[in-house]
Specification:
This protein is an alpha/beta fold. Helices cover 41% and strands 14% of the residues. The longest helix is centred in the middle third of the chain and has 23 residues. The radius of gyration is 17 Å and the shape is globular. Bound molecules: NADPH dihydro-nicotinamide-adenine-dinucleotide phosphate (NDP).
């Protein structure tokens, strides 16, 4: 029996990057997995098809994290279709870099809507369905822990908010046997932050290991948190960052 047999997971932003790796790993470990996406319909469908090919139930749903009604609706749709929800992975996020003088109201609203309001609303909607053994894992960032360089004020603000959400919710949901944790990735090779991009060597220089991580590094830690062996880990910030913030 696989570790997550019978569990249902919702991974936001599961069409590519870290979210895709997490979705496939949770399915490999036995879970049925729903992924949300914004624009990458074909890629999200391909992820769902891979999950189905593994013998699990996979489902790709377009749900703009910036739209509160879409967030609510997708959680309800998962609960209705699968009859339960066990694992929420708040992964969908947008990046932003730039000096504060050049950061406009539209940037601020967009980043806070997707990176802060949406994880809050996903958690709120999920809590209605999570039961004993339930899991909420949110993707923060090493930039919430260490400002190694300037230009990250908006992004770091959004990711630091996930620490407060995680710690407070862990207290609130602990008595129900539900754990809540935040993972702070370091530079991870995705389309958001390619390991061969112009800023890659610069970022690698701030890590202890001298290089980028892979999406599967984040997925492995989430798999541990999601399984039975993660039962005593809650309210925790877990760095998977190659030593970036250490
Ligand atoms: P990618 O840009 O590669 O993937 C982002 C994913 O989020 C896609 O599936 C995308 O969907 C989805 N998404 C973005 N906006 C929305 C939205 N409004 N509604 C629904 N889905 C949305 O990013 P990464 O995989 O690199 O990052 C994943 C998470 O990890 C983010 O929260 C990011 O901030 C965080 N992170 C990443 C690091 C890195 O170095 N890569 C480091 C630290 C944290 P679609 O394909 O449809 O656009």
């Amino acid at each position: 029996i696989a570790a997550l047999d019978g569990k249902v997971a919702l991974v936001t932003g599961g069409s590519r990057g870290i979210g895709e790796a997490v979705a496939l790993r949770l399915a490999e470990d036995g879970a049925d997995v729903v992924v949300t996406y914004l624009g990458s319909a074909e890629r999200a469908e391909a992820v769902a098809a891979k999950i189905t090919a593994m013998g699990r139930r996979g489902w790709a749903v377009r749900a703009d994290s910036a739209d509160p009604e879409a967030v609510r609706a997708v959680v309800e749709a998962v609960a209705e279709r699968f009859g339960r929800l066990d694992i929420l992975v708040n992964n969908a996020g947008v990046g932003h870099m730039g000096p504060i003088e050049e950061t406009g109201l539209a940037d601020i609203d967009r980043v806070l809507e997707v990176n802060v309001r949406a994880p809050y609303l996903f958690a709120k909607a999920a809590v209605a369905h999570l039961t004993e053994g339930g899991r909420i894992v949110t993707i923060g960032s090493c930039m919430a822990k260490r400002a190694a360089f300037g230009g990250g004020s908006l992004y770091a603000t959004s990711k630091a908010a996930m620490i407060g959400l995680t710690k407070s919710l862990a207290r609130e949901l602990g008595p129900r046997g539900i754990t809540v944790n935040v993972i702070h990735p370091g530079p991870i090779d995705t389309e958001l932050n390619p390991a061969d991009g112009p800023g890659a060597d610069f970022q690698s220089g701030f890590t202890a290991v001298g290089g980028f991580g892979r999406p599967s590094d984040i997925a492995a830690t989430i798999a541990h948190l999601a399984g039975a062996e993660g039962r005593y880990i809650t309210g925790a910030e877990i760095a998977v960052d190659g030593g970036f913030a250490g």
